[in-house]
């Protein structure tokens, strides 16, 4: 039982990173229909930004959090304004290819500036172990859990209780009708990219808290993609749940079936979900007349 509990907590912590990345995927796809394959590399950029700030700010978590969120949001908006908005009239495939190119550019810039060797982030929250019954948690792990919880609560309130959330849902449902209702769809798109940047910022900060940093950290986005599929590509909160589920399943697979199965279980789940419920658990089923 102790092993099960510890594997569950470990899976939840890693699942928080997957959840934040999946929420970024979903926020852009919900608003624009574009799969942003630069999400993981934006997370990588913010993780290294957190490392730089933590190294110069004597490990001040508040300053690192502020710098991470600012970097993620600003870079997200800049990417939309400089690269995606000029492609508005282009086919969807072209926009997706632009995001792949952006991913390569961001990763190359990070390697050029920081190098490819692993970097240890200075501790920001201490190393004292917190024990809840038989479960042991580091302060960094608890902080990651709290960051996801705060993100889910804020996202839920924004989409369900604010005018901005109504506008985003309207633009996602019917762009033409939203324009006729006086909603600025361009502004909605920019906000969607800003949100994706914020989620990438929190995911990058989580990586900085949990792992040593190297350019392969961006590959976590590929393991978070099954979470977005599971929750539904157009469901931001569904992506959060999907990330936690994938994280727990990976932890169980690694603990009970061997490390090799840990990397496979998410993609096996993708195949099953696409066969049974292709729109995900909370995705919107689209009906098209032909």
Automatic annotation (TrEMBL):
Its main location: membrane. InterPro entries: ABC_transp_permease, BCAA_transport_permease. Keywords: Amino-acid transport, Cell membrane, Membrane, Transmembrane, Transmembrane helix, Transport. It is a multi-pass membrane protein. Pfam families: BPD_transp_2 (PF02653). The chain crosses the membrane at residues 6-26, 60-84, 96-116, 136-159, 188-213, 225-252, 264-282. It is found in: Cell membrane. The keyword Plastid does not apply. PANTHER family: ABC TRANSPORTER PERMEASE PROTEIN (PTHR11795:SF451), BRANCHED-CHAIN AMINO ACID TRANSPORT SYSTEM PERMEASE PROTEIN LIVH (PTHR11795). Belongs to the binding-protein-dependent transport system permease family. LivHM subfamily. This is Branched-chain amino acid transport system permease protein.
């Amino acid at each position: 039982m102790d092993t099960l509990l510890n594997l569950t907590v470990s899976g939840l912590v890693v699942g928080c990173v997957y959840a934040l990345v999946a929420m970024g995927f979903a926020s852009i796809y919900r608003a624009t229909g574009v799969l942003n394959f630069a999400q993981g590399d934006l997370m990588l950029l913010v993780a290294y930004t957190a490392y730089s700030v933590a190294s110069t700010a004597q490990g001040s978590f508040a300053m690192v959090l502020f710098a991470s969120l600012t970097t993620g949001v600003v870079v997200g908006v800049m990417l939309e304004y400089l690269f995606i908005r000029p492609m508005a009239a282009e086919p969807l495939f072209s926009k997706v290819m632009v995001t792949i190119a952006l991913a390569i550019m961001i990763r190359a810039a990070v390697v050029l500036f920081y190098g490819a060797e692993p970097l240890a982030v200075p501790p920001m929250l201490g190393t004292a172990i917190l024990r809840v019954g038989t479960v042991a948690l580091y302060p960094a792990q608890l902080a990651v859990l709290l960051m996801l919880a705060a993100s889910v609560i804020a996202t839920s309130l924004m989409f369900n209780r604010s005018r901005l959330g109504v506008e985003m849902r309207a633009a996602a449902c019917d762009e033409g009708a939203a324009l006729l209702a006086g909603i600025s769809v361009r502004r909605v798109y920019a906000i969607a990219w800003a949100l994706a940047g914020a989620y990438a910022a929190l995911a990058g900060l989580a990586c900085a808290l949990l792992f040593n940093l190297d350019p392969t950290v961006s590959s976590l986005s590929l393991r978070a993609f099954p979470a977005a599929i599971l929750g539904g590509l157009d469901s931001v909160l569904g992506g959060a749940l999907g990330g936690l589920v994938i994280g727990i399943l990976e932890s169980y697979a690694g603990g009970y079936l061997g490390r090799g199965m840990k990397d496979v279980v998410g993609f096996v789940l993708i195949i099953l979900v696409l066969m049974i419920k292709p729109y995900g658990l909370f995705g919107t089923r689209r009906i098209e007349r032909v």
